[in-house]
Amino acid sequence: TSIFSHFGIFHLAINMLMLFFVGKIFIHYLGSNRLLALYFVGGIFGGLLEIIAHATIPSVASQAQLAVGASGSIMAIFIGIAFYKPNLPVSLFGVINIKLLYIGIIYLAIDILSLGLNDGTAHFAHLGGAIAGIIASQNPNSPSNLIYRAEKLILKINYYFGNLKSPKLKYSKRSYKKQRLS
After folding, report:
1. C-alpha angle with apex 165: 164 to 170, nearest 5 degrees?
2. Pick from 54, 60, 63, 70: CA 20 to 30 A from residue 160's CA?
3. What DSSP element (H or E) covers 169?
4. What Cα–Cα distance (Å) separates residue 172 from each residue in 32, 167, 169, 181, 182?
């Protein structure tokens, strides 16, 4: 899937640096299972919005662009925690204290203002991820919340694959033959 691919080492480094910082905050308040769930959901939302934009908006359709990278997923996590904990103070460069929501709004504004530019950035994928993050931040403990449902699905898949058992093999000391146990 495109959320695990990147154009180069710099592209990967920027995304992973952003994931490191916002991921730590996200995990502190909402947990690692929800981070994983939102990573997938945000990537799917981002990819779908990028595809829809290229299929329906003529000025975007004329731009040959691939939606590759984890940016939609990272944006979902970033905007999700920014909307969940909007008043959380963040120290930029150890000097400037600013609320996390303001940083999120700046990132959203940059993507909105950059729509239609042929700059090699999948801005619609970023916005799709941001939409997923906003949805996820609204009452995240409700069973009707998208991220809550995605988390439960991931836990069920993990439980299913964690309980699969391969046949046990027994080695006889005399013949060293493999024998199946039932």
Report:
1. 170
2. 70
3. strand 169-171
4. 44, 16, 10, 12, 16
Q: Phi/psi of residue 97, each to 5°?
A: -95, 130
C-alpha 114/C-alpha 128 separation (Å) is 14
More confident residue, 16 or 60: 16
Residue-level pLDDT at 182: 46
Q: Which two tokens stand for residue 29?
A: 């308040």
State the pLDDT at residue 11: 75
Cβ(22)–Cβ(79) below 8 Å: no
Average pLDDT over residues 96-123: 86
- Average pLDDT on 72-97 reads 91
- Rounded to whole angstroms, how far apart are CA atoms 151 and 62? 37
Q: What is the pLDDT of residue 71?
A: 86
Q: What's the Rg (C-alpha) of the chain?
A: 21
Distance in angstroms (rounded) separating the CA atoms of residues 179 and 56: 61
Q: Is 0.70 topped by the overall pTM?
A: yes
